[in-house]
TrEMBL record:
Protein name, UniProt field: ABC transporter ATP-binding protein
Domain ABC transmembrane type-1 as annotated: residue spans: 43-329
UniProt source species: Agaribacillus aureus
Tagged with keyword Nucleotide-binding: yes
Mode of membrane association: Multi-pass membrane protein
Pfam families: ABC_tran (PF00005)
PANTHER family tied to this protein: ATP-BINDING CASSETTE SUB-FAMILY B MEMBER 10, MITOCHONDRIAL, ATP-DEPENDENT PERMEASE MDL1, MITOCHONDRIAL
Amino acid sequence: MEPARKGGKPPLSFDERFKALKNLPEFFKLIWQTSPKMVLANVLLRVIRSAIPLVTLYVAKLIIDEVIRVTQSEAPQSLNHLFMLVAIEFLLAIFSDILNRGTTLLDSLIGDLFANKSSIRLMRHSANLDLSQFEDSDFYDKLERARRQTIGRSMLMTQVLGQAQDAITMVFLAAGLIAFNPWLILLLMITVIPAFLGETHFNERSYSLVYSWTPERRELDYLRFTGASDETAKEVKIFGLSDFLTNRFKVLSDRFYDLNKNLSMRRAGWGSFFAMLGSAGYYAAYIFIIIDTVKGNITIGDLTFLSGSFFRLRTLFESILNRFSSVAENALYLQDFFDFFNLEPSIKVNPQARPFPNPIREGFVFENVGFKYHNTDKWAVRNLNFTLRKGEKLALVGENGAGKTTIVKLLARLYDPTEGRILLDGHNLKDYNVEDLRNETGVIFQDFVKFQMTANHNIAVGRIVEKDNRPKIVHSAEQSLANTVIDRLPEKYDQMIGRRFADGVELSGGEWQKVALGRAYMRDAQILILDEPTAALDARAEHEVFQRFTELTKGKTAILISHRFSTVRMADRIMVLDKGQCLEIGTHEELLAKGGRYEELFNLQAEGYR
Ligand SMILES: Nc1ncnc2c1ncn2[C@@H]1O[C@H](COP(=O)(O)OP(=O)(O)OP(=O)(O)O)[C@@H](O)[C@H]1O
């Protein structure tokens, strides 16, 4: 086997596996909270069910003894007693079936509820985490494992409850066997324990394998998605990427298959050997009991009862031990689940925060602000010193990668500066509640989300509490020109857009942008940020949008990012960025007069239009 790879753990010791069991109480607390009534009913049914095997075996013994008594008797005998015993066994069988069905039903209902609740918790928790955490691949692996846990974990409940049920059944059966001969119990243990240790070993290997392969499995999922999805089909065809993607998939999946096959084969080999050992133990005990019966020490009914008990005990013991190692394994996975929920965001809601200014009095001041993205040593922006005055419209220009979007993200506190600080009305941005800041900020990013939802909701996301306020949504659509798109859709505002779901209608890039821009008009925020809001619009639409732009930003503090100078010149001031630093800042006229980079870029673009 390959050594543990990056992001993987070395195989865990027996001790660590035991420690993982400490997650069970917390887990059962969550299960209990899912539905106390159903969990209680489940436990009760299982307790009753656990007594049935012993009672059934005992009734079977009575039946055999009665049959022998009747057949060996000289005088004719009434069969009433015998039939009554058979009737009892029959009723027990039916009762046991009903109880089984009941617990299976409850298990699956509780499991479904638990999976739903966990998914909701996962979504909520993810929403609270920092953006930078999402950009970290270790985090992604954790999220991935937690996501898998939300569905699979209810199985663990079935296992643990099954374990308790079998343990009680065993106590009942063992009592009978011990009364006959305590050595039989010892024989039982000797034959079953090696199998348990073997299972435990292989479970641990399999966990380590799955764990260390999380990044690759994520890549496999990604390749599967890229190779077969509507979003990528266009480029996959044009560039002929199918072989490239499938080959990479094949290499990875074959490697995982080989490692897994190796493990499964060894597991099967050892498993057969241990099963043989178990059977040998059973037959040794059987011979022992037969000899005692032949000697006349016990009845034939006792023989069936004891051999039956021994057989059941062996099966139960094996399943308890095997299940134990699988419970421990599942508890290890549970650790990932809890680890994810224990992740804390660094940008948190601050209960002692100062109230957000309404209206903003002075504006923002960037004091020597620098920022590095997670896991890189490169400064995305540095030494930024500038003000964004209340009610001012500031445009950011600069080449790709100059740091424009980064400034916007810092302003909306999607990240905090690595050095320096940002002040709002004289106080650090961190002193305000991040939720208030975001409520007062409307951002339309260049890579805005194309929500696969109705046109109505696609605009309403700008202010989701107003999702039922149709007049406001229509008004926003009119302002952003999205109405020209929506009015042509068969279902108008109730039209599903995007291709993912049935009856969805796909829009062009510019049409999507008009819809996304509508979100800015929905938002009654004091700060408005538009990151390349018109990049995909045709010339006429861009012109119209900008005629309305003054109205949209009236009374608001706004940042506008654009590569089009016709757009940029509408701002009050313009900041030119270069490699994360502020090169020059001033009004359009000032910068032209200065004859610096702005003038150069402006003339370059104007040249292109002549
Ligand atoms: N999530 C990220 N992780 C690491 N580095 C990043 C990340 N986002 C941006 N960067 C880097 O930070 C620098 C600034 O990026 P930013 O997105 O702010 O540029 P921009 O001026 O908005 O560019 P564009 O005009 O292409 O939109 C770039 O060098 C980029 O590579």
